[in-house]
Design the sequence.
């Protein structure tokens, strides 16, 4: 697509300054006159806008909880092919100008021209293009890819580029702090400035001396954990000052720091406090009035472990904690005990994560300029302190050709174009602090990545957790980074290598060789062989050109969460994630919504060889049931292709880790991803995940165990009445003349006292002598109160229904997971968290009166049963026996009897749709902006309703 002209060469000393120029550099070395750009997507003489059908739409976004309008702009112009969701998010998030004013952007054309025009002008000004004609082609190619949703820049580009605001283009920041009060206070200030701009930052606190060391004055130091309190309060204050999402920050501490145990336990102890306060009646929901009393909640915590420590864990030996000032060992601890503490804390509250220092710095291109000691909040950007990275992500599904083969050649050319644009942005970008500006301009860190990998694998008939799927993912990642670095080497011949290259040339070349060597180790399959073959050629060209020119960028690629921009590109999956579920929620033009089966399902069936009639029948089955198990004509060996992150068949946690390991050797940075684990997972399972991540060569890893946090899942409790009202009326088929079976005058009964979210009550359940439930009485609230009266009437109606033969499991499926206050922690060890009093009551009744088989269909287990499941079926890595699996899946009739019908359209997001379909809650918070239930995206959460994220830009 593009090529250099004039035989690019470079000097071997310190490079030219960050602002390149045509002709000769500072040292007089000859430069190529610029890039000659060739057309790939566009046609000469035809503007990209002319190839698209445009239409005007009205964007009216309402709050899911109360129906109020929170954004409205009518008559906006978008391509007809864009979804309503993408239109809404781009209009509300990225259009600039006051709503209702003449200066407000009203067309995607204006947005694209504002951004692409700025890149084109900067490219011409700084000598990137051979001619004005090449710049024009560059403009058209970028425009075509953007309006066809082939890729997207990160959000700060859309917010800021081409506006009167500072033109910040970076989403990822790393700060630094030293062992002085001045540096610590400056940390608070710089972090605040970044939060104010809507971005996040990370840093390593390990330079701060521990609470076990002395100050120069003779006193004892307070340690880094104490200073985390101030930074956490600052982040919370800035967030509450008007931002629409939480402040995003990462705090890292080295495993050999003497305060490491205190650091590891900080958030786990605070989570215990949350539970106690919740039980005492305080409002501890996410965003609740009393949650501010809990500390350390505005940061992700990570422990930076060394290879030495991990080997000590494997060998069961002790490990030395070192003084910050002298480096001497001041305490020795048992490595396995410390590692166990890290895993227990993560099991309890999902923090801390792990960063593998040895792997990170072994792949470091500029070690002579400093070590990599920290990351951005989502852990994908890892480079020097006081630096930043701008991101862009490609939509992989756009590169499938008419035969559903991955078009590697076009993909590589698109990468070259995008990486050129990303580098140009550093020439005009503004930065929140001068140290960050200086480092970024000297090293020019970029982070190209992709989205829709999960959808691509499913569409092409690959299981996410399979050798073939990992081979294709690894080959694509290798080609992406190889093409990016190849273009970076070509740019170095045009506008000079990055300023720090000369000092780090040997190390940078070594890392490039490591990438190329890992590419040669990919075990290829039919679908991945052409991609890997082209990647091999690209890496060879990259090394040859780089040997002469050096490289323009110290790093080129990361895998970011692609939250909001993933929605902008209409991606089914974000980043490296698999599909969330086989059915999803879709907004319609003119209002309303519907559930649809993901398009990847039909494409997968076609590629797996199913006839059109068979495929249609299977798609209909998926639409009704949400999974493919027992679908008509479906081969059991193909079930794994349709495994998802949530649902009836979920990908095992180690499957996520193995996919990360397939991509990691081909990334300059790391991967933003949280490995979700079931609630029944054990501490040993967490240890195994963290240990395997190190062995497989990952740079960072975090886990989240379902329901391990109080505030997060329970934040979905408010506004639950809306969703309850949205459920369609279920029709129970009964005999034409039902007969009431009354209880005898003397019958066995059992009374249970309970507490839900601080509300106390009593449940009395009376049974028939033959052990069938026949009546319930619920006492809740003061005698004579409205609540007490309503509960009496409710109990009476349920009792009469039971006596007329309505199955208890029907009531359980209807009333469990209803969400309204009071909700929260209970005093029942079998039902730790309830989303409402009714949710608790019917879970308790199910546990006491339903057999295990029926409870398993409803997803209700006792604490002992959950523990037993850990030993029986979790983490073994073995494939399930299909006959055994099918026998455990409820039949259609059983599902109908349990009240599980196709989900209604009155939902706010795919996560809500999934909850209604599966009859169980997903661990995700409500969006603070619009109230919609969010869904996982990388290591944060994404709102499908308005595009907000829970911490990732």
Sequence:
């Amino acid at each position: 697509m593009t090529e250099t002209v004039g035989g690019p060469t470079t000097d071997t000393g310190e490079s030219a300054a960050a602002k390149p120029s045509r002709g000769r550099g500072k040292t007089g070395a000859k430069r190529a006159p610029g890039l000659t750009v060739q057309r790939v997507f566009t046609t000469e003489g035809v503007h990209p806008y002319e190839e698209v059908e445009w239409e005007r739409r009205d964007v009216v976004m309402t709050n899911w909880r109360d129906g109020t309008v929170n954004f409205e702009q009518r008559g906006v112009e978008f391509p007809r092919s864009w979804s309503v969701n993408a239109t809404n998010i781009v209009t509300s998030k990225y259009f600039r100008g006051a709503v209702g004013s003449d200066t407000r952007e009203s067309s995607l054309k204006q947005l694209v021209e504002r951004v692409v025009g700025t890149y084109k002008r900067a490219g011409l000004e700084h000598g990137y293009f051979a001619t004005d004609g090449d710049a024009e082609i560059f403009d058209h190619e970028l425009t075509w890819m953007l309006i066809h949703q082939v890729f997207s820049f990160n959000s700060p580009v859309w917010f800021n580029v081409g506006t009167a605001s500072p033109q910040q283009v970076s989403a990822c920041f790393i700060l630094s702090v030293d062992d002085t009060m001045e540096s610590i206070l400056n940390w608070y200030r710089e972090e605040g400035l970044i939060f104010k701009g809507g971005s996040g930052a990370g840093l390593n606190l390990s330079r701060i001396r521990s609470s076990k060391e002395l100050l120069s004055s003779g006193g004892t130091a307070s340690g880094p954990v104490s200073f985390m309190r101030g930074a956490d309060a600052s982040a919370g204050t800035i967030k509450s000052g008007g931002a629409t999402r939480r402040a995003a920050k990462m705090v890292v501490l080295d495993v050999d720091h003497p305060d490491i145990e205190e650091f590891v336990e900080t958030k786990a102890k605070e989570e215990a406090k949350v539970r106690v306060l919740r039980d005492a009646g305080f409002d501890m929901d996410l965003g609740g009035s009393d949650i501010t009393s809990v500390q350390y909640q505005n940061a992700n915590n990570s422990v930076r472990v060394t290879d030495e420590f991990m080997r000590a864990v494997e060998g069961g030996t002790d490990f030395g904690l070192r003084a910050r000032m002298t480096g001497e060992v001041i305490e020795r601890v048992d490595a396995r005990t410390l590692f166990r503490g890290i895993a227990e804390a993560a099991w309890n509250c999902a923090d801390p994560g792990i960063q593998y220092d040895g792997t990170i710095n072994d792949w470091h291109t500029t070690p002579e300029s400093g070590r990599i000691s920290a990351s951005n909040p989502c852990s994908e950007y890892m480079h020097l302190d006081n630096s930043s990275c701008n991101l862009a992500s490609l939509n992989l599904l756009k590169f499938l050709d008419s035969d559903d083969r991955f078009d590697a050649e076009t993909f590589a050319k698109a990468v070259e174009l995008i990486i050129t644009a990303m580098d140009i942005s550093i020439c005009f970008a503004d930065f929140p602090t001068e140290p960050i500006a200086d480092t970024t301009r000297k090293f020019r860190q970029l982070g190209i990545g992709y989205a829709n990998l999960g959808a691509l694998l499913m569409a092409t008939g690959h299981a996410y957790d399979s050798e073939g799927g990992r081979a294709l993912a690894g080959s694509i990642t290798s080609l992406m980074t190889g093409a990016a670095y190849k273009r970076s080497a070509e740019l170095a011949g045009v506008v000079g290598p990055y300023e720090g290259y000369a000092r780090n040339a040997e190390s940078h070349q070594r890392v490039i060789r490591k990438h190329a060597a890992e590419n040669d180790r990919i075990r290829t399959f039919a679908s991945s062989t052409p991609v890997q073959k082209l990647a091999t050629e690209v890496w060879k060209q990259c090394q040859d050109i780089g040997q002469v020119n050096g490289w323009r960028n110290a790093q080129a690629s990361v895998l970011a969460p692609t939250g909001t921009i993933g929605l902008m590109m209409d991606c089914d999956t974000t980043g490296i994630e698999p599909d969330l579920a086989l059915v999803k929620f879709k907004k319609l033009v003119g209002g309303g919504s519907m559930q649809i089966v993901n398009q990847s399902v039909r494409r997968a069936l076609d590629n797996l060889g199913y006839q059109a009639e068979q495929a249609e029948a299977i798609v209909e089955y998926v639409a009704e049931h949400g999974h493919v198990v027992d679908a008509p004509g479906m081969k059991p060996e193909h079930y794994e292709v349709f495994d998802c992150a949530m649902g009836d068949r979920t990908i095992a946690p180690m499957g996520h880790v193995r996919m990360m390991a397939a991509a990691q050797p081909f990334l300059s940075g790391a991967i933003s991803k949280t490995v979700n684990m079931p609630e029944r997972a054990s501490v040993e399972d967490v240890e195994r995940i963290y240990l395997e991540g190190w062995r497989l060569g990952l740079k960072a890893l975090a886990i989240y165990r379902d329901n391990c946090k109080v505030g997060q899942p329970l934040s979905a409790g408010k506004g639950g009445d809306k969703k309850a009202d949205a459920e369609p009326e279920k029709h129970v088929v009964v005999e034409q003349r039902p007969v009431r079976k009354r209880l005898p005058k003397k019958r066995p009964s059992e009374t249970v006292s309970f507490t839900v979210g601080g509300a106390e009550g009593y449940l009395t359940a009376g049974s028939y002598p033959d052990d069938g439930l026949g009546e319930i009485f619920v006492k809740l609230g003061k005698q004579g109160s409205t609540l007490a009266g309503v509960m009496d009437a409710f109990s009476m109606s349920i009792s009469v229904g039971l006596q007329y033969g309505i199955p208890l499991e029907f009531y359980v499926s209807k009333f469990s997971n209803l969400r309204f206050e009071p909700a929260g922690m209970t005093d029942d060890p079998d039902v730790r968290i309830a989303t409402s009093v009714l949710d608790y009551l019917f879970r308790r009744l199910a546990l006491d009166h339903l057999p295990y088989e029926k409870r398993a269909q409803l997803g209700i287990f006792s604490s002992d049963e959950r523990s037993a499941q850990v030993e029986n079926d979790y983490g073994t890595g073995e494939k399930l026996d299909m006959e055994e699996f099918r026998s455990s899946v409820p039949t259609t009739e059983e599902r109908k009897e349990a009240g599980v019908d196709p989900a209604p359209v009155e939902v706010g997001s795919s996560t809500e749709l999934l909850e209604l379909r599966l009859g169980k809650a997903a661990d995700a918070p409500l969006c603070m902006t619009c109230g919609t239930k969010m869904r996982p995206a990388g290591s944060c959460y994404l709102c499908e309703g308005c595009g907000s994220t829970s911490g990732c830009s």
DSSP finds 31 helices and 25 strands in the chain. The two ends are 30 Å apart (CA to CA).
